[in-house]
Specification:
The structure holds two protein chains of two kinds. By secondary structure, chain A is α+β, with helices and mostly antiparallel strands. Chain A is built from two helices and six strands; from the N terminus they run βββαβαββ. In chain A, the strands form two sheets. Chain A has a four-stranded mixed beta sheet with strand order 3-6-4-5, with helices on one face. In chain A, helix 1 packs parallel to helix 2. The longest helix of chain A is centred in the middle third of the chain and has 17 residues. Chain B is an alpha+beta fold. Chain B has two helices and seven strands. The two termini of chain B are 16 Å apart. Classes of the chains: A alpha+beta, B alpha+beta. The interface between A and B is medium-sized, with 36 and 34 residues.
Amino acid sequence: VANVRFLSPDTISKPRGYSHVVETTGPSRIVYTAGQLGLDRDGKMAADFRTQATQAYENVKAALAAVGAGFEHVVKLNHYFVDMAHLPIMFEVRDRFVNTAAPPASTAVQISRLARDGALYEVEAIAMLP
Amino acid sequence: VATNLRFLNPETIAKPPGYTHVVEVTGPGRIVYTAGQLGLDRGGKLAGGPGDFRAQVTQAFENLQAALASVGATFKDVVKINNYLVDAAHLPIFREVRDLYLNTAAPPASTTVVISKLAREGALFEIEAVAMLPAK
């Protein structure tokens, strides 16, 4: 993608699996996705954290695909955990979806609850397309 | 401030302390997203002793400044910040340090929430930013 640059300057400690800075040069299409939970098409919640996270990424992929985008266009991810202890599993799942050669910028926080009962993880994305 | 940015506080909303309610960007230009920055030094160590919020928030703003500098941006170009604190009691120190870095004449729009934990054990503060720059 020609109009997007992924940078991690050596003035900031090395990031794990994300980029510190993503610069996009317009004109371009900007795509915002809703936060995605581990819900299947019928609205049923996946059982454990790994399957919820996998389903959430599948949902982001489907959201992106709806506008002709893929994970290679994602410039930012925001992650919401009910339990930060799940972080290593999220890394594993995430790295099967994002472009690990030029990963998006990222923010992760632990919050006390998500909108859906039993939900353990939510992820939202911003993507840039020509 | 780049001419393609307008910082507005409509009088229909309560006056914001240290931020702006609405920032309007007119393209074309460059959009810059930063990752959330913690109070980690270049070696990946949390700034200050355990629980030193002021040291962490200062380092996080330094990191954000470095992130912006890597694309030729400064705090003047920042249109939105999101701030995450683990303890609302830290708000006064956050505001004090924030105002040392932001362009207080035209500060970005801002959201601040208290969350229960950050990705790094012992981390007390995280900030992420969106900046807008004229096209090169």
